């Protein structure tokens, strides 16, 4: 019997605190494997000694040994779909797994972000002459969402998910321009080339990507969230959601940094598009 099966079989025998740990691990085993004991304890809202006690209940020597056993017990999930989802999962199971694993990954992302780098990124964006968002594949939808957020900010902004357009944009960039590159792995060769080309033309490159990746090495500023998702084998899910949230964080920081007068402009934008909507009905939620 593997570790996950052992946890599920004995879940009713655990103490209340130990059961909290078990539930977090069952919901997102892949996140647990990549978490520190402090992170897992925080996610389960228990103490670190409780996590250690839980691990020893499963006949492991401690948390590091437990993570090794957990990693060994994890099947490959459903290839090209999701690591946490099994072939025989029904709608209840896979719906619960996707929501719970995504929420757990967002918590990991939040705790791994460096707020000083967030602040620096907001500084750079608010001082930019022009902002461009580039992404390929699944990350292209994040780049388009960023365009939707920043387009209303009364600053030149563009978005390209075509590599030729990205390169031409970089060639036409210059000092004061900011290019935001979005890639979970940071190993897409074309985007690494784009980052290098942008810097050659004096643009400032912000990368939403993995630390120590080839893309990170070619960027001026890296925002990394450490979301444990293998997008080489599985569909990008939690990593994409985390990227979208990070765009919201940057857009919020941009808005607050610009001050009340800038928010008055946003209010006018909102008022102008009201006529494109039907009147809200009682009970409607937007």
TrEMBL record:
Can you give the residue ranges of the HTH rpiR-type domain?
A: 1-77
Which Pfam families did the record assign?
A: HTH_6, SIS
Q: Check the record and name the Gene3D superfamilies matching this protein.
A: Glucose-6-phosphate isomerase like protein, domain 1, Winged helix-like DNA-binding domain superfamily/Winged helix DNA-binding domain
Residue ranges constituting the SIS domain according to the UniProt record: 121-260
Q: Which UniProt keywords apply?
A: DNA-binding, Transcription, Transcription regulation
PROSITE patterns for this protein: HTH_RPIR (PS51071), SIS (PS51464)
What protein name applies here?
Answer: Transcriptional regulator HexR
């Amino acid at each position: 019997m593997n570790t996950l099966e052992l946890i599920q079989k004995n879940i009713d025998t655990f103490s209340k605190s130990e059961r909290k740990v078990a539930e977090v691990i069952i919901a997102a085993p892949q996140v647990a494997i990549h978490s520190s004991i402090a992170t897992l304890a925080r996610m389960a809202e228990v103490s670190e000694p409780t996590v250690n006690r839980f691990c020893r209940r499963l006949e492991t020597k401690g948390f590091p040994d437990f993570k090794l056993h957990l990693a060994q017990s994890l099947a490959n999930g459903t290839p090209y779909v999701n690591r946490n989802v099994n072939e025989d999962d029904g709608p209840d199971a896979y719906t619960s797994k996707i929501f719970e694993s995504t929420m757990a990954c967002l918590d990991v992302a939040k705790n791994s972000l460096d707020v000083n780098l967030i602040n620096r990124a907001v500084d750079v964006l608010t001082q930019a002459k022009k902002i461009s968002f580039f992404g390929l594949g699944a990350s292209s939808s994040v780049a388009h969402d960023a365009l939707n957020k920043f387009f209303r900010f009364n600053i030149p902004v563009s978005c390209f998910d075509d590599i030729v357009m990205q390169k031409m944009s970089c060639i036409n960039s210059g000092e004061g321009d900011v290019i935001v590159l979005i890639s979970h792995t940071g190993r897409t060769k074309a985007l690494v080339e784009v980052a290098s080309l942008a810097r050659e033309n004096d643009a400032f490159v912000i990368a939403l990507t993995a630390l120590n990746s080839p893309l990170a090495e070619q960027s001026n500023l890296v925002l990394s969230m450490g979301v444990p998702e293998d997008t080489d084998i599985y569909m990008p899910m939690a990593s994409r959601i985390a990227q979208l949230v990070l765009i919201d964080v940057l857009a919020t920081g941009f808005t607050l940094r610009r001050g009340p007068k800038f928010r008055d402009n946003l209010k006018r934008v909102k008022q102008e598009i009201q006529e494109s909507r039907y009147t809200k009905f009682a009970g409607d939620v937007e």
